[in-house]
Known about the structure:
Elements (H helix, E strand, L loop, with lengths): L15 H6 L7 E4 L3 E5 L9 E5 L11 H21 L4 E5 L15 E6 L15 H15 L6
Antiparallel strand pairs: 1-2, 2-3, 3-5, 4-5
Helix pairs in contact: 2-3
The structure holds guanosine-5'-monophosphate.
Amino acid sequence: MTEFSDDIPGYDDENIFAKILRGEIPCHKVYENDDFIAFMDVMPQAAGHTLVVPKAPSRNLLDADAEVLAKLMPFTQRIARAVRTAFSADGVTIMQFNEPAGGQTVFHLHVHVIPRHEGMPLKRHEGGMEKGEVLMANADKIRAALKTTPKS
Length: 152
Ligand code: 5GP
């Protein structure tokens, strides 16, 4: 893991995704393996907005371990395929932000997987909170789609 210089803070294990990974706060889980967890974004920019989160601690892409990054893309592909199927999406937007200037607000590496439909703009980043029952139903749909999604 690369060290940050003094003017960039390091990893803080009290961030919200670290708490989710430790089971201290709940999430609407889609899938989990030894290396990653995928769960619903509570403030979705479109229905089905899912977050892929490596279990290994890193602040973002800039300090992440290369081995984690090598596994992250195939895992993200699998989730993206299931998200596309679950929401009959025309496309999928993948986003990943680094540091506040790069748009990052939660400082544990994660990738956004957002189903897209022709002509439908994304909602605002960190807009409104979605209802728990909607997130639960959307997670169910993606879980069902994963059963028929080939592994990379
Ligand atoms: P970032 O801006 O860091 O790339 O994205 C952080 C994302 O985490 C945002 O899209 C935001 O909606 C989402 N988020 C913030 N707090 C929580 C939370 O407590 N649970 C879940 N599931 N998502 C969260």
